Task: structure prediction
Amino acid sequence: MRIRNKPWAEDELRKNPRVIFGPETKKNISGHWQEFFGNSNPIHLEIGTGKGHFIIEIAEQHPEINFIGFEKVEEVLIYPARYAVEYDKKNMAFIYGDAQFITNYFAPGEVERIYLNFSDPWPKKRHHKRRLTHPRFLNLYKEVLKVGGEIHFKTDNRDFFEFSLEKLSGNGFLLKNITFDLHNSEYAEKNIMTRYEKKWVEMGKAIYRLEAIWTGK
Ligand SMILES: C[S@@+](CC[C@H](N)C(=O)[O-])C[C@H]1O[C@@H](n2cnc3c(N)ncnc32)[C@H](O)[C@@H]1O
Result:
C-alpha cells in the first residue's frame, strides 16, 4: 500500500465540492453527471491528470464541454481541484481514485472522450498489464464510452505507443490522426502541452500521438 505523505491533502480533497471522493460518493454519481454539472454538455475525461496543466487549459478553451480529471494521487490532484473552486470553473470536476474502478463512476455511454496524457509507461513486460492502454483497461473504457466516443493518447515512449496502437486496433477501436512526431506535425498548432510533455520536449524527445474511435464492436 502507498504511504500517504500528506494526509492534509486528502482532507482538503474531501472538502472540495468539485471532487468526487471515494466509495461513499461514487454510488450516487454514476449516471448523474448531468445533475452535477447542471447541463447536458458532453463529458471529456482525463485519466492521470497530475497537477492539471492540461485540464485547466482545455477547460478554459472549451466551456461547452464538461471536463473531469481522474487522479489517484492526492498530492497532485489538490492543485487543479483548488483552481476549479478558486476560479469558479463550473465545467471542471475531479475524481480522486484509481481508473481501474472507472465503471463505478460512469453509466454506460456517459463519457464522450478519454484523454490519456503521458500515462506511466511501465516498461517491464511483466508490468504491461498496468498500462492504461492494456485491454484490461480498454474493456472498462468501452463500458463507459459512447459508441463513436474517442480516446486521445500522447506519450514520449515509443514501445508504449506501439503497444497501444496494437491493443487499440485489436480491441474495437479505429485509429486516426496518428503522428510519431507531434511537435513537427499538423497537430502541433492545436496541441495543449502537459507538464510532462513540456519536460520531454525541452529535452528534444519526439512525442507520439493518436486518436482512437470506439466502434461499438
Ligand atoms: C506520468 S504522470 C503524467 C501527468 C500528466 N498527465 C502530464 O502529462 O503531465 C501520470 C499520472 O497518472 C496518474 N495515474 C497513473 N495510474 C493511474 C490510475 N490507474 N488511475 C488514476 N490515475 C493514475 C499518476 O498518479 C500520475 O499523476
About this structure: Residues 168 and 201 are 25 Å apart (CA to CA). The pocket of S-adenosylmethionine is lined by residues 47-48, 50, 70-73, 76, 98-100, 117-120, 194-197 (CB under 6 Å). Residues 7-214 form a domain with the Rossmann fold fold (CATH 3.40.50.150).
